[in-house]
Structure of Polysaccharide biosynthesis domain-containing protein:
Amino acid sequence: MRMEACKGYSEENTIVVPKIIYLAVEIARNIEGINEKLKMEFTEDHRKNGAQL
């Protein structure tokens, strides 16, 4: 799970948690809109690199 939602997955920003905790936190982040900025950056980066979503 990402410790800081504003950053992507990396070794420094990732911790291991039980799946149910991961799901609960990610659902809460999505409901609050915290993941939107990172999702837009991720999508834009893939479009620049020619990947299809």
Notes: The chain has one domain: 1-53. The chain is about 50% helix and 0% strand. The radius of gyration is 12 Å. Helices lie at 19-32, 36-48.
